[in-house]
């Protein structure tokens, strides 16, 4: 799935707003729940080394909030990493284009949406 398809999916499936909050980083996108304006997905254009990879290749990642107990096992999977620029105990980063299990990606988006909802 590419970045634009992913953003379109989020807009179709969730009651959300798409925000580009950083003028300095026009490729950084935040997807917010409409009811509380908390973001459940952040999409960033970064280099592989920023996630501890041995590459300078550009990649689009999405940061998703996650149940802390699941993170140690998830980050063992190819395409899932400790969160870029977020609390690594509560967030993960996923390579949007290279992660192959689309159903799992959707399930993790659902979890993120639920976790940032009203308590």
UniProtKB/TrEMBL annotation:
It holds the Pfam family YjbR. Gene3D superfamilies: 3.90.1150.30. PANTHER family: CYTOPLASMIC PROTEIN, CYTOPLASMIC PROTEIN-RELATED. This is MmcQ/YjbR family DNA-binding protein.
């Amino acid at each position: 799935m590419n970045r634009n398809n992913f953003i379109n999916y989020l807009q179709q499936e969730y009651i959300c707003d798409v925000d580009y909050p950083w003028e300095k980083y026009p490729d950084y996108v935040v997807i917010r729940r409409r009811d509380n304006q908390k973001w459940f997905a952040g999409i960033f254009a970064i280099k592989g080394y920023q996630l501890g990879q041995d590459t300078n290749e550009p990649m689009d990642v999405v940061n998703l909030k996650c149940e802390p107990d699941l993170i140690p096992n998830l980050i063992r999977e190819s395409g899932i990493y400790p969160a870029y620029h977020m609390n690594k105990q509560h967030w993960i980063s996923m390579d949007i284009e290279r992660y192959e299990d689309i159903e799992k990606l959707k399930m993790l988006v659902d979890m993120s949406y639920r976790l940032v909802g009203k308590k």
